[in-house]
Amino acid sequence: MFRNLLSRLFSDASDRASLPSEDAEVAVAALLVRIARSDDRYSENEKGRIETVLARRRGLDHAEAAERRAAAEMIEAEAPDTVRFTRSIKDRVAIDDRQNVIAALWEVAYADGRRSAEEESMIRLIAGLLGVNDRDSALVRQRVLDDLGISGQ
Description:
Layout: H1 2-9, H2 13-16, H3 21-37, H4 44-58, H5 62-78, H6 82-90, H7 95-109, H8 117-129, H9 134-148
Helix pairs in contact: 1-5, 3-4, 3-5, 3-6, 3-7, 4-5, 4-7, 7-8, 7-9
């Protein structure tokens, strides 16, 4: 099952037009896992935040969100690189929703209460790859910090 999904996610551009929206959401989930793991500290708080984000994005219950996170962990571990991974998402997710993806990434990055240079660098790279400019990414980051009640870091 996961091998088939990976094949679809990383297929030629002409084949990605038929990528089901469900697959695109799994790709977003895997990207959230990639951010959480980027600082080599994958905490329970980050796992919980990923599940919260997944539940909110698609109206999943707790068990469904936990299952999607577990699947995303396996997919993320197999994903060859971030560039191809984000390209798959960019091809299937509208620009407004890509900004929501960036917000979710910032949410996960701050879930463990630590400011990580690795996570921040990865999000900046991903934002560019998803076509979200630096200014918009910074505004999204500030909105997330405000929503989380964290003073500007």
